[in-house]
Design a protein that fits this description.
It is a single chain. The chain is α+β, with helices and mostly antiparallel strands and 101 residues long. The chain has one domain. 35% of the residues lie in helices and 16% in strands. The chain is elongated and about 70 Å long. It binds zinc ion (ZN). The site of zinc ion has 8 residues, from loops.
């Protein structure tokens, strides 16, 4: 089966713009740091005769996109870190302090 030439061109455009985070296909997803939405390569908006790529939700450019599932953008991961930091700030009990010291 032959791939759609328009899709091939779009995938080439995505990879030319984001060589650091290459796209394997147009179904691959990215997370927009500006609007916090996920979208796939096929949804990316190409503006100004193919020069500028834009998030389909807010119009931000590729420098604000990260791979979906990035732990730094996951609310549950942030909640875990906040708990760990809060616990680390609590005074240690005496048994732990004697063992550590
Ligand atoms: Zn966006």
């Amino acid at each position: 089966m032959r791939a759609n030439p328009t899709n091939d061109r779009k995938l080439q455009r995505l990879n030319a713009t984001q060589p650091q985070r290459p796209w394997s296909s147009l179904s691959e997803e990215r997370h927009c740091l500006v609007c916090e939405n996920d979208f796939c390569g096929g949804d990316v908006v190409i503006r100004r005769s193919g020069v500028r790529l834009a998030c389909p939700h807010c119009g931000s450019g590729p420098k604000f996109w990260v791979r979906s599932g990035n732990p730094l953008t996951d609310a549950h991961v942030w909640a875990d870190w906040e708990i760990a930091i809060a616990l680390a700030q609590e005074p240690e009990d005496e048994d732990e302090m004697q063992t550590a010291g």
